Amino acid sequence: MATRILNAVASDVRFPTSRTLAGSDAMNRDPDYSAAYVILETDDPGGLSGHGLTFTTGRGTELCVEAVRLLANHVVGLTMEDIAADMAGFWRGLVGDSQLRWLGPEKGVVHLATAALVNAVWDLYARLERKPLWKLLVDMSSQQLVDCVDFRYIEDALKPAEAVAMLESQLPSRAEREVEMRRDGFPAYTTSAGWLGYSDARIKQLAEEAIGEGFTHLKLKVGFDAENDLRRARALRDALGPNGALMLDANQVWGVEEAISYMRPLAEVDPWWIEEPTSPDDVLGHRRIRDAIRPIKVATGEHVQNRIVFKQLLQAEAIDFCQIDSCRLGGVNEVIAVLLLASKFGVPVCPHAGGVGLCEYVRHLSIFDYIAVSASLENRVCEFVDHLHEHFVDPAVVAGGRYVCPTLPGYSAEMKRDSLSTYSFPGGPAWA
Amino acid sequence: MATRILNAVASDVRFPTSRTLAGSDAMNRDPDYSAAYVILETDDPGGLSGHGLTFTTGRGTELCVEAVRLLANHVVGLTMEDIAADMAGFWRGLVGDSQLRWLGPEKGVVHLATAALVNAVWDLYARLERKPLWKLLVDMSSQQLVDCVDFRYIEDALKPAEAVAMLESQLPSRAEREVEMRRDGFPAYTTSAGWLGYSDARIKQLAEEAIGEGFTHLKLKVGFDAENDLRRARALRDALGPNGALMLDANQVWGVEEAISYMRPLAEVDPWWIEEPTSPDDVLGHRRIRDAIRPIKVATGEHVQNRIVFKQLLQAEAIDFCQIDSCRLGGVNEVIAVLLLASKFGVPVCPHAGGVGLCEYVRHLSIFDYIAVSASLENRVCEFVDHLHEHFVDPAVVAGGRYVCPTLPGYSAEMKRDSLSTYSFPGGPAWA
Description:
By secondary structure, chain A is of the alpha/beta class. Chain A has helices spanning 61-71, 80-85, 87-95, 108-128, 133-138, 142-146, 160-170, 174-184, 200-212, 226-240, 256-266, 283-293, 307-315, 332-345, 358-374, 417-422, and strands spanning 5-14, 34-42, 49-56, 186-190, 217-221, 245-249, 273-275, 297-300, 321-322, 382-384, 398-399, 402-403.
């Protein structure tokens, strides 16, 4: 029997993280990690519902919550079977809403809200199929996966038939990689040591802890003060030794020429990548920076608004690493689009995570990417930040520097009931 | 004495235009022209206030209204003198809000709300100086104008000193062009005849009326059905004769390759430009289309989110016409940035207008552009749509196919009190 979506309940959940400076960087000085959270209630006799979220940083979460409510009519009343039968059409209906589209299109608040709803739909879908999301995707045929993607605006770079052929070529070895992922998990890196607001001593201590836990890739926030950055980067390099990978993250503080000159002294610490050296909108700027700072590589994506900008970053050979965000892209459908594009252009995907719920999401995406799309672990690491996982029913687990393969049905963003009420904004006790 | 901003009152105003299909195109089937409207109340003894708006198309206007409220703390409490003393810093404070920035940055709902607030500030500034906005700008020194611009992310294309030099070179002849604008006004074109929902007979009748009123440039909405488009375009070309300029507007319905093949048969009607042939985010796609369809020119901008994307459209030589939107760019400050960039790259600016309030705004911008920045009328026409002007205290007037130069103090977006209450959403009588 078909499962019908009866209601979309959206709520505003905020964690007062700005009180500790966890999450602080050159552009985001005082984030309160937050989510616009949505529950899709259904007529499933077992009471199954779909849970999804989009990540925000405090003020303005209410805008995403309200946008979810405005978009909900594209979801409520449908059955999961209706949606699954035409995933790309369903998705285009959401992003093409004839009045809300003006407010984007496919970017900003409305697109973040789209992500929350689409992620909730996929959570519901995976629960109904009793599979973790990555396994739901891995079990789809190449054609079914491609049918999830809206090719509008990307067909000049990748045609559906070409995408099917790419997936087919990896199909024979999918099962092997699935065994590997279940056994070993997916490589992670950590940003927990490198927040801008942390003292040198705290950075060093956290770095040593992380290395002790098996991490070989550590990331440092830079861009606020050149001298200070170099000192902190040296401390981290010392802790890592010459073989570990040190990544730097400027969170968009620089202009193009500024990025190039700022990176010159930092070359001393042999950074693997510089992340977000400038505006996420500046495709040509990223290309120019990439050309100028080789062999340091360029990564970006947590603020890249949609598949169209990723398409251009790839076409222009502007990035070495594609950092999809599971909640800024319009949910799983658009993530699949970008994974396919990145694979075609041979650029590794290293998802952005942290915040709240992002680590829960991205492990599914990286594992799916490896098993079905890229079939490679070379130069691939998935971000991990050890914050706020205690609020989730199926929290992200990292062991020995790798994301453990999730096994519970769904897309893992379900928050505990207690957390939802305690951190409800503005009424919850955490905000009293 | 300094004038202090005491309060920002935001409201949701919607006109039920979808009932007549005025404003219909291939992507926007049923717009209800709307505005997030803001009044900056001050302690001015004469009771002066600043009025600003951002244009929307119905659902979701409430998101912009709420975003204005969230941003208001960057404006309320300041004096107009504080703001005028550091215009670029004031603007960067708004777009750099440490938590709201996550929801963009500089795009979507929050940037539209930024535009409403910034436009209201400029309205207040011009009223205090007892000048129409264009004249306030024209009377500024080159350095003052450049000091209004946040050069973050555009300095690789245009340096402040270079912008000052550009403006200085036009300075000796500013006064002449001011006389000309006051006498003749600025050339306009009209889209009133060419909406997608209109019948052929209605298009022909409206085109003949427009030509009778002195228009030489007419625009037609295309992209829904190739055969139908060609028939309607021929009718418009017949009405215009061989010397009139016929513009086509696809409102983003095509992919890159689709745009190229769709434009082939339409070349028959000798279009001057094709507007929004694909996604506004696709800089490289616009370049490819432009290369493929010469001598037909490419125009875009009403959905271009900020100066960073315009910078790239210019750097990549992707457009022939730069169609700034006065409410999608972050208000007057960012408009000045794009006018300077376009001038440097030698691309004419032909602002997008229509909707509600946009015509009231853009005449100021085009007149300022001509007098102080571009100093040229070649290939420059400013959009005009004859809708909803009756709701404004200082409505746009077009005579003989030209925008009449406005003379009242301010930036002209003040709506009549009656209109504000009648069309207030959802409580106003128009929505009862």
